[in-house]
């Protein structure tokens, strides 16, 4: 509830920058509180000039808030000048150093350092320091002209007004900055989890590195779209990207449902692995099921396009089970990958498959032979290797 209210008042982080949201928060607080504060200030017997300057400051800050929040026009340096002029008037024609307006002046350094950039930040901070020094010097040399608190309660009211205003502003700045940091941290964590398994992402965050690991048994799945280049000649770039997104998003959902992990996509190829890094003792069956569902999805999508007399690609898939080595490579851009003969064999299973079919190796077949129907393909020749036994997998009726 409070988060929604805050977003409504100062703006969403998706639209407004951190500086803009802090600017909006400070402007609405100063503008909104200036008017009720006049009631308390009346207790201090301030002069008409004080009242007029505070009214001007209130209206000015509400205007700044409106322009920033609704018109997306932010003037960070101008509000600082308005506040410095207003506070200087209150100092010069009020209680001077006997009062507490100097607390407010010094407190402005925090939002100034955050809101302003480059030369403006330097100028703003120097202006605050110069203003305080000049007013202090004037106070010392003209002490007799300043008002004096008639009662202790007046002093408490003056302190309370400046303290409360400064506390609210600094609290808003701190809260907005911390919330922004939390949002950015969540975004970075989400991006990290999009490219790395949760366990590996945790290791990188906690220890700054992830140790390579050998897995004795995993199942690797390769898929490739058949006729992709030919089909692309008849489709616009927008449709091609849209369809790749549709297919790969569907593959991601299938992969997640079977507790598998997508390793990468290269062009129109999709690679996933089961049995790592999260444990999945039934990874050969899970990967085979996922491969069959991927093939079925593309088959359905192809039929929809062909019903409209539009060309579409097909898919071929290869599956193999065996040992791999896994780890994270890269410094600027992380990539979690696997290496070993198992990867090469899975790739060959895919390249020796047929459109619409899931081709599995003997190693995978041995572990799922009772869970699916198979078509024995016999020994198939593979370049640079001996002939390898292959099977087409089908779901049980």
The number of helical segments is 14
Q: In terms of structural class, how would the helical and strand content be classed?
A: alpha+beta
Strand content: 15-25%
- Distance between the amino and carboxyl termini: 52 Å
Q: What's the helical proportion of residues?
A: 55-70%
Low-confidence runs of at least 5 consecutive residues: none
For the sheet with most strands, the description reads:
8 strands, mixed
Radius of gyration: 34 Å
Whole-number average pLDDT?
86
The overall number of domains is 2
Order of helices and strands: HHHHHHHHHEHHEEHEEHEHEE
Give the number of DSSP strands.
Answer: 8
Query: How would the global form be characterised?
Result: elongated
Give the structure's gist in a few sentences:
The protein has 397 residues and is an alpha+beta fold. The chain is built from 14 helices and 8 strands.
Descriptive notes:
The chain is α+β, with helices and mostly antiparallel strands and 397 residues long. The chain has two domains: 2-185, no CATH class; 212-394, Nucleotide cyclase, GGDEF domain (Alpha-Beta Plaits), CATH 3.30.70.1230. 59% of the residues lie in helices and 17% in strands. It has helices at 2-10, 18-41, 48-71, 77-92, 101-107, 109-115, 118-141, 152-195, 198-207, 228-232, 237-257, 283-306, 341-351, 362-368, and strands at 213-226, 261-266, 269-274, 314-329, 335-339, 358-361, 373-380, 388-394. Strands 1, 2, 3, 4, 5, 6, 7 and 8 form an eight-stranded mixed beta sheet that branches. A hairpin with a 7-residue loop joins strand 7 and strand 8. Helix 5 runs parallel beside helix 8. The longest helix has 44 residues, at 152-195. The two termini are 52 Å apart.
